[in-house]
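Lab notebook, design round three. We kept the backbone fixed and only want residue identities now. Task for the bench partner: fill in a sequence for the structure below.
Input structure tokens:
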């Protein structure tokens, strides 16, 4: 279910299920709530972005900045932990 919300996570997980020969019913039982969670999450992001910023491009810039920030934090933490040791 989490693979739907992780960027580039859907395809590898779906391929793994295919290669593991999961039954379609089992896959669908996990995929349906994942699809609903994905849809709700991105709809909330869109609604919040639209209500927080008067211009659409401002929301896009904020999303890109937040993505870069979230992506960079683990590397910075790792470097800081390595330097303290």
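Proposed sequence:
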């Amino acid at each position: 279910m989490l693979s739907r919300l992780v960027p580039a996570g859907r395809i590898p997980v779906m391929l793994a299920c295919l290669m593991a020969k999961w039954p379609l019913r089992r896959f669908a039982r996990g995929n349906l709530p994942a699809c609903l969670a994905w849809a709700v999450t991105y709809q909330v992001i869109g609604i919040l972005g639209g209500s927080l910023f008067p211009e659409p491009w401002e929301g896009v810039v904020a999303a890109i900045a937040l993505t870069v920030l979230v992506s960079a934090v683990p590397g910075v933490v790792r470097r800081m932990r390595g330097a303290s040791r």
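Keep this in mind before ordering anything: The two ends are 37 Å apart (CA to CA).
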